[in-house]
Write a structure and sequence with these properties.
The complex is a heterodimer of chains A (about 375) and B (about 600). Chain A has about 375 residues and is α+β, with helices and mostly antiparallel strands. In chain A, about 25% of the residues lie in helices and about 30% in strands. The two termini of chain A are about 30 Å apart. Classes of the chains: A alpha+beta (about 375), B mainly alpha (about 600). Chain A: One of its GO terms (molecular function) is ATP binding.
């Protein structure tokens, strides 16, 4: 299975505005890569450029050794010759064709003989569990079924590159959960390289083998999901990935209160860096007596929000509000004064890039 | 860990490389080539004749050299002066302009209220027999617009113009001039003719509004009236503005009705003024008038561009169907049905029966003078030009065959071209090409057919370059007819393609379908409904077309309409009415058959 390589890819519309700026990205062979970012960050444009539906204004796109776009060399392969699969956000099923004909269409274009075409379409529909609706029309299906038909239509031609443009965003939560598992299974079974666009960080973390975070047309970080979570490259990634988001306290020129406390601690442990901001993930903020040499402060409990498997606590620490997430029952009640501590904090420089982190043992990468 | 830090502006490849890349892309995407072909064709068929008219307005015409004191063919402002500033300019221009504005405004309001109301009734309510109403209320559009004016005269004509008076006057009820002639009857008869057009356009848009959009507003607490004002009407704006503009354009160019109902009372509009100027052979003045109308048209086009700019890329519904839920009229169901029946009666039954009865009575609608001579008599005493019933002799049959052949071919060309224009506009690979096509394909609408025909004649009458002289050929007739009806089909093509969006085609592209396969298997089949509407509407309209063909037909290419108007000119009222009824019958039958054969209904239009 091929890797997808984007080199120096840029896309601008009309004037000077860039939807995608100078993108270098490699989707490894057989990876499940999520393009993650807020709306308008250029992730869908990137996906459509890989598919060939949009053309870059500069750069090269290749799958394996096959160059699909190269503005510099004047090479272009049209979408219909790229042999990829794409699922659109609104599925784009053809309303005048039955489910079977929708799925068979790609095979027909590849001149697959009728009996084989039939068998492969049925197999693809069986794989996504809509083979019962084979002779119906798209308008007679539910959203979830349409979604599955769109998947089957893509899978029937057995493409080695699958592109998915927020395919789960129109589904209800239960179906979405089910489809996530389904997509993961399809990835494992087919071994295809998958590029998946989403703005939902949870979706990215749960499904992807690699996550690429984009913002304003620029790549912020490419990493495995847990690496991205543990070692965000900059403030944007730190705040975008993780829920509830990381609390980041700006230090400022004359730090007082919580900022001062955090800075003093950070400087005492990592004297070589001078952070402009310090971040703590809610689940790294603990309550109770601190085990040894960690950062700790007194905090007033403002609210306790149980959520079954976890407890979210709103704290006031030196005039700043913080959230803590605990996975053990929280005994404190609102108004109680407790000690909060952490042994993991992220330090950010003035330009927003992550300088370092301290995890109780010392600096980590 | 991959941290990415990048220069803000990427290095741009050299121009020649970018160009090479662009060319490679274009080679695989025929949209741009198709767009260019359409630009050239429309440029030649639409823009070139208009340039010819414009140049005629500023060059001294044969016969005016003595008055103007210039040589024939010289550049001149003589015609401008004559039309705008001379002693006769009030008669030539200002009064007709005012009258045109009054008629256009009145007709649009009339058609919008009637057509919009009926559209809502048949698409969004549970009125009894809505399917039947939806079909029945489109029938007025199948009748030639001057049918209504002939029927009006049969009922309301007074003694002013001389000759046989109408039904009311004959019964001793005096019909004042304002009721018999002029603005009011023209507005009413044109409004009755054009409201189905509004009904079709608005009905289609109403049917396609996603019920969820309406429900969201209801759930947020908006009362019904607010929902209509803030959600439905804004979403309908493209359809409404299209409807208004198409009707205004049509009224500007309409000729038969103001000819029949206006001229006896000296009520002139721009189109009849233009016709008279052409008939008087004052080509220069006619060209100035035509130019003025073109300019008015262009202003409207620009206004439309502004108004619908935000809506152009608007995809209300993807490939999915919208929900079809109806408001419950409760106790008003049957009164609403009665209202629909009244509209049907006034716009179809009354005019048709008036005309029918007039063809079987020697005195209008007086059944004691019943006769079938006008239909079947082998000899009609007194009628020298057409001395037998309309079904005798070969004239009617030859004209009917010509009409079907010529109009049918023109409609098919027109519909396919319209859909292709829509395709190129919505694909949006070349914004400037799209802009040109959108505007130019609409332009013929704002030029009176008669001026357009004259312009086409001056352009095509002689051989130019590789194109031979086309005057008197059916080819020219087909071409001009297709071009003048292009606004219908290109509008509906653009609307249909906008509704569809690009994704169904992109999905086919991803599935490996080359361009022709995508067109043949995806775009055209999905747009079957739009295509049928795009054929049927121009067909019905072309079958009744008068102002264009009256200039272009020769003895070999007589059509039903020219036959009928010839009979009107002879004063054979009953025979003319009979031929008009035949036209109405043929166009109705054709519509019905088309609906049956393609299993799509004209009433549900783009719905396919």
């Amino acid at each position: 299975m091929p890797a997808i390589t984007l080199t120096g890819v840029a896309k601008s519309y009309g004037g000077g505005e860039h939807a995608v700026k100078n993108l270098d990205l490699t989707v490894p062979d057989g990876a499940f890569m999520c393009l993650l970012g807020p709306s308008g960050c250029g992730k869908t444009t990137t996906l459509r450029m890989i598919a060939g539906l949009e053309q870059p204004t500069a750069g090269t796109i290749a799958v394996g050794d096959r160059v699909l776009d190269s503005v510099e060399r004047g090479l272009y392969v049209p979408p219909e010759k790229r042999g990829m699969g794409l699922v659109f956000q609104n599925y784009a099923l053809w309303p005048h064709l039955s489910v079977r004909d929708n799925v068979e269409f790609g095979l027909r274009m590849r001149k697959v003989p009728a009996p084989e075409r039939r068998a492969r379409a049925e197999a693809a529909l069986k794989m996504v569990h809509v083979d019962a609706a084979m002779d119906r029309y798209p308008s007679q299906l539910s959203g979830g079924q349409q979604q599955r038909v769109a998947l089957a239509r893509m899978l029937a031609v057995n493409p080695s590159v699958l592109l998915l443009d927020e395919p789960l965003s129109n589904l209800d939560a239960r179906l979405r959960l089910e489809m996530r598992a389904e997509l993961k299974r399809i990835h494992e079974e087919s071994g295809a390289t998958i590029v998946f666009v989403t703005h939902d960080q949870l979706e990215a973390l749960t499904m992807a083998t690699d996550v690429a975070v984009m913002n304003e047309g620029e790549l912020q970080q490419v990493a495995a999901p847990m690496d991205m979570y543990d070692r965000p490259a900059n403030r944007f990634v730190a705040e975008f990935v993780g829920s509830p988001p990381m609390v980041i306290v700006d230090v400022g020129p004359s730090p007082a209160g919580l900022a001062g406390s955090l800075l003093r601690f950070a400087e005492s442990r990592l004297p070589e860096c001078s952070p402009a901001a310090v971040g703590i993930r809610p689940e790294a903020l603990r309550l109770g007596p601190p085990p040894g040499a960690t950062w700790c402060e007194e905090a007033v409990v403002e609210a306790v929000l149980p959520a079954g498997s976890s407890w979210t606590v709103r704290l006031r620490v030196l005039d700043t509000e913080l959230y803590a997430v605990s996975y053990t029952p929280v005994e404190a009640a609102p108004g109680d004064v407790v000690t909060c501590w952490t042994e993991r904090m992220h330090l950010f420089g003035a330009d927003g890039a992550r300088l370092s982190a301290w995890d109780g043992m010392g600096a980590v990468a | 860990m991959a941290v990415v830090t990048k220069a803000e502006t990427p290095p741009r490849p050299p121009r020649s490389r970018r160009l090479l890349y662009r060319l490679r892309v274009l080679r695989h995407d025929p949209t741009a080539a198709l767009g260019l072909i359409l630009v050239v064709l429309l440029g030649y068929l639409v823009v070139a004749p208009l340039v010819a008219v414009l140049s005629d307005a500023f060059r001294l015409q044969y016969g005016d050299d003595v008055h103007a004191g210039q040589a024939v063919g010289e550049w001149t402002g003589y015609y401008l002066w004559r039309v705008f500033r001379s002693q006769i300019s009030g008669l030539l221009f200002w009064q007709p302009l005012l009258n045109t504005l009054v008629v256009a405004l009145g007709t649009v309001l009339f058609a919008l209220v009637l057509g919009g109301g009926m559209a809502w009734l048949v698409t969004r309510t549970n009125v009894p027999g809505r399917k039947w109403l939806a079909g029945a209320l489109v029938i007025p559009y199948m009748l030639p617009s001057w049918t209504f004016s002939l029927a009006w005269l049969t009922l309301f004509k007074n003694e002013r113009a001389g000759g046989q008076v109408g039904f009311l006057q004959a019964r001793g009820v005096h019909t004042p001039d304002w009721l018999a002639y002029g603005a009011l009857p023209i507005i009413v008869t044109l409004g009755l003719h054009y409201y189905p057009f509004v009904l079709l356009l608005v009905g289609n848009a109403l049917r396609r509004i996603d019920a969820q959009l309406v429900d969201s507003a209801r759930i947020l607490g908006a009362p019904q009236r607010t929902v209509v004002r803030r959600i439905v009407i804004p979403l309908m704006l493209p359809a409404l503005s299209s409807a208004v503009l198409l009707v205004v354009g049509r009224v500007l160019g309409t000729f038969g009705t103001p000819y029949v109902l206006g001229l006896p009372a000296d009520f002139r509009v721009l189109s009849t003024g233009l016709f008279q100027s052409i008939r008087d052979r004052s080509t220069g003045v006619a060209s100035v008038l035509a130019t003025v109308i073109v300019v008015v048209g262009v202003v409207i086009v620009l206004a439309d561009t502004r108004m619908t700019r935000e809506h152009r890329r608007f995809v209300t519904v993807g490939g999915k169907g919208s929900m079809d839920r109806l408001s419950d009229l409760r106790r008003l169901r049957w009164p609403a049905f009665a209202l629909g029946l009244v509209v049907f009666g006034v716009s179809v039954l009354v005019p048709v029966f008036t005309l029918l009865l007039s063809t079987v009575t020697r005195t209008p609608l007086d059944l004691s003078t019943f006769t079938l001579d006008y239909w079947f008599a082998e000899r009609l005493p007194g009628a020298v030009g057409f001395p037998h019933g309309v079904f005798r002799g070969s004239e009617l049959w030859a004209a009917a065959w010509n009409s079907l052949r010529i109009v049918g071919l023109a409609s098919v060309i027109c519909a396919v071209a319209g859909l292709l224009v829509g395709y190129v506009v919505v694909r949006g690979t070349a914004p400037r090409v799209a802009f040109f096509l959108r505007q130019v394909s609409f332009l013929p609408y704002l030029v009176p057919g008669i001026a357009f025909a004259a312009a086409s004649l001056s352009l095509f009458a002689v051989a130019r370059g590789p194109i031979p002289a086309l005057y008197g050929t059916t080819f020219l007739l087909i071409l001009v007819m297709a071009v003048t009806h292009l606004p219908y089909s290109s509008r509906s093509g653009i609307a249909a393609m906008t509704q569809l969006g690009r994704e169904p085609e992109e999905a086919a592209q991803i599935a490996g379908a080359p361009w022709f396969q995508r067109m043949g298997r995806i775009i055209f089949p999905i747009q079957k409904g739009a295509l049928v509407t795009g054929i049927v509407l121009p067909f019905i309209s072309g079958l009744k077309e008068l102002s264009i063909v009256v200039m272009l037909t020769t003895t070999g290419t007589e059509l039903l309409t020219t036959l009928s108007i010839g009979l009107v000119d002879y004063g054979y009222t009953q025979l003319a009415n009979a031929v008009v009824l035949v036209i109405a019958l043929v166009s109705f039958t054709m519509t019905y058959l088309t609906q049956r054969l393609t299993k799509s209904s004209l009433a549900s239009g783009l719905g396919g």
